[in-house]
Amino acid sequence: MKIPLQTNQTLYRILLVVLLFSASAKAQIQKTEPPFWYAGMNNPELQIMFYGKNIAQYEPTVSNNVVIKDIKKTENPNYIFVTIDTKNIPASELVFSFKNKNKVAYTQKYSLKKRRENSAQRKSFDASDMMYLIMPDRFANGNPKNDSDPSLVEKANRSIPGGRHGGDIEGIIQNLDYISSLGATTIWNTPLNEDNDKEHSYHTYAQSDVYKIDSRYGTNEDYVRLSNEMHKRNMKLVMDYVTNHWGITHWMMKDLPTKSWINQFENYTQTHHRREVITDIHASKLDKEVCIDGWFVPSMPDLNLKNPLVAKYLTQNAIWWIEYADLDGFRVDTYNYSDPAAMANWAKSVTDEYPNFNIVGEIWMHNQANLAYWQKDSKIGAIQNYNSNLPSVMDFTLHNQIGSAFNEDEATWDNGMIKFYNNFALDYLYPNTNNILVFAENHDTSRINDLYKYDIAKYKLVMTLMATVRGIPQLYYGSEIGMGGDKSQGDGGIRLDFPGGWKGDTNNAFTAAGRTAKQAEYFDFTSKLFNWRKSNEAVHFGKMTHYIPENNTYVYFRYTDAKTVMVVFNNNAKEQTIKTNRFKENIKNFKSGKDVLTGKTFDLTSEITLEPKSAIVLELE
Question: Cα–Cα–Cα angle for 17, 18, 20, nearest 5°?
Answer without folding.
Answer: 65
